[in-house]
Design brief:
By secondary structure, the protein is an alpha/beta fold. It folds into two domains: 270 residues, Vaccinia Virus protein VP39 (Rossmann fold), CATH 3.40.50.150; 122 residues, no CATH class. It contains 15 helices and nine strands.
């Protein structure tokens, strides 16, 4: 069967009039705590909201095995569902926990006032060259920016309340990216330095940017705190979703997720993006890779039960055998995760996967159809595939133009 024929077997979005197929404004996608920190390839909140509302009930448990910055967890909490997020990236874990942690307004505003006073009144500490812990720090930041960031971080570490300190740290990290020498006109998640002529004009006001971002994030956390259902909880677990049995000891009612890609040269470089933050925040970053298929282990092409994938890999392999092996490695890890999800999802529960179509060596990879075929072998029934145009400017080389919302039900 050709790829076009495989796609033609589905009437995309035929069952439901979905409201998430349009372009959403930045204000819409940053509602509640969704905008407290930049993060690569964020799931559009309105997609998670619609799926959670249709395929789960209040009081049930929603799992996101690749929770990223916590989009599914935030939407679940607001919708009255408990949630579990699994993530291997330490920065994402911090963002997710801050995004889903309510904070008392009086206590928070008092802490903010104290922090701002400290930043402006305390004499700037001497900045050590090595103990900052940021590799090649003078490449990524101007000297005055380094001094200001060090002063802010020093004051934040005085905060005794762990939840508030985490919020301040996330705000610090978001500020750090904004005032860095990263060329945001390009893909900001791939972290390239400004051109020489641009660097001469780059004069960020670090303290002003931090105050601005802090006000935004405080308002966001308080908005979330007022809207969340206090009867539910959101748990963020650090771990590898290729083995959920050691992480989650109960079944869940629904899964909503968007898997990260491993080929950073063509999609998103999670590792490179995360490094600056983890070094500034002094977070243990002992995981070298954060995306599926990022390892050097190549999969056995015979293990997949997907005619579309078999055909696609043959086409890619005819042009570039190494690229075909890279694609197969990602799908090997992906299939392992789908198998783990199946073991934790209750019978009759829904798995909703948001995954983009891609290209490799100029060959289209219809990941929606491939997901459906692999999942079918594992014991899922595909109820619908909704195609949605992608509006991400940060994607390199236009390797992904459409994403699929694959709706599966455990048989």
């Amino acid at each position: 069967m050709s790829q076009d024929s495989a796609l033609d077997t589905w009437v995309m979005g035929k069952d439901t009039a979905w409201n998430f197929q349009r372009l959403f404004t930045p204000a819409e996608t940053r509602e509640f705590t969704h905008g407290i920190h930049p993060y690569p390839a964020k799931l559009v909140p309105q997609i998670a909201r619609a799926l959670i509302g249709k395929f789960s009930e209040r009081g049930q448990v929603v799992l996101d095995p690749f929770c990223g910055s916590g989009t599914v967890l935030v939407e679940s909490s607001i919708a009255g569902r408990s949630s579990i997020g699994v993530e291997i990236n330490p920065l994402a874990i911090l963002i997710s926990r801050v995004s889903t942690t309510p904070i008392d307004e009086t206590k928070l505003r008092k802490a903010v006032d104290s922090l701002i006073r400290g930043v402006h009144q305390t004499e700037a500490p001497e900045v050590p060259s090595e103990p900052i812990g940021v590799h090649n720090v003078n490449h990524w930041f101007k000297a005055d920016v380094i001094n200001s960031l060090y002063k802010i971080r020093t004051e934040i570490l005085r905060e005794e309340d762990g939840d508030i300190r985490n919020l301040f740290m996330v705000t610090f990290s978001a500020t750090m990216y904004k005032v860095s020498n990263i060329r945001h006109k390009d893909n900001p998640y791939f972290a390239r330095v400004l051109h020489e002529d641009e660097l001469s004009k780059h004069k960020p006001d670090t303290l002003r940017e931090f105050r601005h971002r802090l006000k935004q994030n405080v308002d966001s956390v308080l908005s979330y705190s007022r809207r969340r259902d206090s009867s539910v909880r959101a748990d963020v677990i650090r771990g590898d979703s290729r083995n959920l049995s050691n992480l989650i000891h109960r079944s869940v009612d629904m899964v909503v997720t968007s898997p990260p890609y491993g080929e950073q040269a063509n999609t998103m470089d999670y590792t490179r993006f995360t490094r600056l933050a983890t070094e500034w925040l002094q977070i243990n970053n002992d995981s070298a890779q954060f995306a599926l298929g990022a390892s050097n282990d190549h999969a056995d092409l015979k293990e997949f039960h997907s005619p579309t994938l078999e055909q696609t890999l043959a086409l890619v392999g005819a042009k570039d055998e190494q690229r075909a092996k890279q694609v197969a490695t990602f799908l090997h890890d992906y299939q392992t995760c789908l198998r783990q999800i199946h073991s934790k999802l209750k019978k009759g529960g829904y798995l909703c996967v948001i995954i983009g179509d891609r290209t490799a060596s100029g060959i289209g990879i219809p990941n929606g159809i491939i997901t459906s075929e692999i999942a079918g072998h594992l014991g899922f029934e595909t109820t619908e595939i909704v195609k949605r145009k992608m509006f991400l400017k940060a994607l390199l080389s236009n390797v992904m133009k459409y994403e699929n919302v694959v709706i599966l039900r455990k048989s």
